[in-house]
Specification:
Structural class: mainly alpha
Strand content: under 5%
GO molecular function: nucleic acid binding
InterPro entries: RNaseH_sf, Tc1-like_DDE_dom
Number of helices: 6
Largest sheet: none
Radius of gyration: 16 Å
Distance between the termini: 26 Å
Protein name: Tc1-like transposase DDE domain-containing protein
Pfam families: DDE_3 (PF13358)
Number of domains: 2
Mean pLDDT: 85
Number of strands: 0
């Protein structure tokens, strides 16, 4: 998944050469293979609490995707049809959404600090 995610091109393109990748500490994210991938590709990780949706813009992307997949009350009759819709939607996440979320990170971090780790409007 990480290799297909275009991290090596999209990270620097969206955030500049000193970009930092963000993930929580879910088991799949802390697996040896995942850690090896980041180390081998010299990807810097943002250190933050395990359950921090206030700092995790992927939650916004999941919400956008759910709205797109189920737009107009669409229902799926097979798992394959749902899977195809999810992959198609993932492939069409607007660059403008990614740019907006990336540029919101400084404000998110400041708000979390000001709230002393409490809930934010994100």
């Amino acid at each position: 998944m990480l290799q297909r995610a275009s991290l090596m091109t999209e990270g620097p393109r969206l955030c500049g050469n000193s970009w930092v990748f963000q993930q929580d500490y879910a088991a799949v994210h802390s697996a040896r293979l995942t850690k090896d991938f980041f180390r081998e590709n010299n990807i810097t990780l943002l250190d933050h609490p395990a359950c921090s949706p206030d700092l995790n813009p992927i939650e916004n992307i999941w919400g956008w995707m759910a709205r797109e997949v189920y737009k107009n009350g669409h229902q799926f009759h097979t798992v394959d049809a749902l899977r195809e819709a999810i992959f198609t939607t993932w492939s069409n996440v607007p660059t403008s959404l990614l740019e907006t979320l990336a540029s919101s990170m400084p404000k998110r971090i400041v708000e979390v600090i000001n709230k002393k780790g409490g809930a934010t409007h994100y």
